[in-house]
Structure formats: structure tokens, C-alpha cells
What we know:
Blueprint: H1 2-22, H2 26-46, H3 50-75, H4 87-103, H5 116-119, H6 122-132, H7 138-146, H8 148-169, H9 187-210, H10 218-236, H11 238-244, H12 247-270, H13 285-324
Amino acid sequence: MAELIDLVLLGMLAITALRIIFLKDLFAVVMLFGIYSFLSALIFVNLDAVDVAFTEAAVGAGIATVLMLGTLALTGRKEKANSHTALLPLLVVIVTGAALIYGTLDMPPFGDPENPANQHVAPRYIEESPQEVGLPNMVTSVLASYRAFDTLGETAVVFAAAIGVLSLLGLPKQSQATIESGLKSHLVLRVVAKLIIPLILVFALYVQFHGDYGPGGGFQAGVIAAAAIILYALVFGLPLATQVIQPKLLKILASMGVLIYAATGVAGLFFGGNFLDYNVLASDPVAGQHIGIIVIEFGIGVTVFAAILSIFYGFASQAERANIQ
Length: 325
């Protein structure tokens, strides 16, 4: 049954991708990309990768869709006519696709318990993580403890991405506080937004501090919290949103989250352990693991929240400048 569901979802993915290729309306393309992300999230759920599905739905279908819509506000809705021949791009795609398919021929059978991935570190994590880390969510144990150094690099990449985007777009200025924007004339949207934004923020806190015991963590919580502020900006206008969460504060938060993560690793050195060794943070190693994971997940959430919201502010401010002109 699971294989049948996967085949149906893969077929829907292929149909969505083909439709995206031939559409000229970029707004419809963005909407279909959101559907594509939701279908991908369903596939991950069917594969029991709930944490990955959570991230795909929040980032791929949520934040990415909003940012692409912000890009359309700057570039236009319709694709410009292209006079170049499609033969060369088609040839490149065919060659690249053939190389990728050829690379999969040596892959072990899907789901085979004798696969190298199931014989290497997976048994170690499955058998030892309950005693060493003590978290019910094994994904969090792997990402926040066993692979903590890699996750620190990923957090730094998010921070670097925000720096790169902001260096090109910049953040809103205080002089924009008088610009009229948003959907203030839509009473229903305003009422609904006022009702669901607090719930979204509460859910973000739940995901942040419940990631040890269920799907979630700092990455997902940061994206969800940023989505709440983005919804506020879309409904009530960017100037009011920048008064609630000021752009200058976002710069501080983005760097502070990375520093919190790195400082937790340095704390392990001061207590006689290795970098990002949480065992030495408390008298009980398992308690130290819990403390370290909670702190670094908080740092991840802060950085992701600030980075995503800063990028949105950058796109939204550029769109509003374009509308004024």
C-alpha cells in the first residue's frame, strides 16, 4: 500500500513539474511550486521522515512561496518572450538527467536492511541514543548531538544567506513608516489574521521546545514564527510589521543565534570536554545532553527566524519602492 501511495504521489509530482515547464504565467508557476512542495512533504511523511516533511511544508510551500511572490512584485507576472533556441538547454537537461540516472544504477535496493546506511552508524544511533542522549525523537538526537558540528555549519549557512540577500536588497528604512500598504480594507482578513497569528506563534513555541519529543526543532520553529510576522506584514502592511519587529533587531538576532550555538560548544571546552560535548554541562551526562540540545535549538530558532524575516523585509521593501515609483 505504501508503494502505491508513493507511485501516485510521484506521478502527481511529475505532472506538476511538466505543467510548470510549459506555463507562461509566473504567478501560476509559483502556486504550482507550492503544490509541488506539499506533494514532496506527503512523500516524506509516507517514508516516515516526518521532520523532513515538516521542514519541506514550512519552507518549500510556505516561506519560499511568499518570497517568490515578492520577487514577482518586482519583475512582473508574465514570462518574457524568449528568442533563443531551446535545443541547447534541452540537450544539457538530457545529458544531466542521463548522468543522474546512471549514477543511481549502483545504489542498493530501496528499503533493504542490508544497505550500507543500515549497517554503518544507524544501528549505533538506534541502540545507544536512548541511553546516551535520552530523547524520544531520534532525529533530534542525531542532528543536535551526534551531528552537532554539521548542524552548526548549516545554521551558519542560513546566517550567511541572509547576509548575502540583505547586501543586495537592504532592509526597510524608517522613512517608509508612512507608506500605506497591506490589506487594511479587507475586514475579514484582518479579523482572521488577528485570530490565527497568536496561535501560529504559540505553535512555533511548541515546535521549538517540543522537538525533543516529537517532530520539530529550531529550524521549523523559526520558519513558523517568521511566517506569523510575514502574515502580519501582508495583512496590516510592512511599516507596522517593522515597528513590531524592527530590522535593526533582526540583524542582532541573526548573529546572536549563531553565537548561542557556538558558545554552547565553547562551554563544553571550559568544562573539560570537547567542542559541542554536552555531557559535561551537568553532573548527569543525559541531563547535560538535554541542556545543550535545548540551548542550541533555541539558537537555531532565533537565527532562522531573523534570517527568514530579514529576507522577506528586503523583498517587501523593494516591492513597495517599486509601487511608489
